[in-house]
Design goal:
about 180 residues, alpha+beta, elongated, three-stranded antiparallel sheet
Length: about 180
């Protein structure tokens, strides 16, 4: 084997990460700043909402320890963004489900009252039952909107922190 062939060998390290599909672009765009090259994607075992990204990078990359530290910092910020995005809907969904269950309980009481030939009680229980089936949508939208307004600035701060981290990593990579 010639001397030039020996010098062209690159040993790679590999990394597979599973992320939500809505975060895929962030990871694909950011990981190259830490020396990683996208090697492919595949459907995740977790289902349609996730994707597995396959990356590789040179084992002998310069500033590897610092790049790895910055990568962990990036991943921490990305996980925090995922958590904050999820928080927009979790509380709203919980309230909507609880109100819907109470509406269903009133409607069940109305049906049992009707079957027991208590028509006035059946009508009285049906009104909050129907209201309990209609209101959850409006509760959900109102609470989600309020929570979105609350967490959006924090999410933007996390994105800014990600961009700063990627800039630092890019400077290290190009040194």
């Amino acid at each position: 084997m010639s001397e030039t062939k020996k010098n062209n060998f690159i040993g790679y390290e590999y990394k597979d990460i599973t992320v939500k599909r809505d975060m895929e672009a962030l990871y694909v765009d950011s990981y190259p700043y830490f020396g990683w090259v996208l090697d492919g994607t595949s459907p995740a075992v977790k289902g349609l909402t996730h994707v597995t990204l396959k990356f590789k990078r040179d084992r002998k990359i310069k500033n590897k320890a610092e790049l790895t530290r910055l990568q962990h910092q990036f991943e921490s910020h990305a996980k925090e963004i995922e958590r904050l995005e999820m928080s927009k809907v979790v509380g709203a969904s919980t309230v909507a489900y609880v109100v819907g269950v109470f509406g269903t309980a009133f409607m069940a009481g109305s049906v049992f009252s009707y079957l027991a030939n208590m028509l006035p009680l059946s009508i009285i229980l049906a009104v909050p039952g129907v209201i309990g089936w209609i209101i959850p949508y409006f509760c959900y939208e109102k609470i989600k909107s309020k929570k979105t307004d609350e967490v959006s600035p924090i999410i933007e701060q996390k994105y800014d922190a990600i961009y700063e981290t990627c800039e630092k990593a890019n400077r290290l990579l190009n040194n």
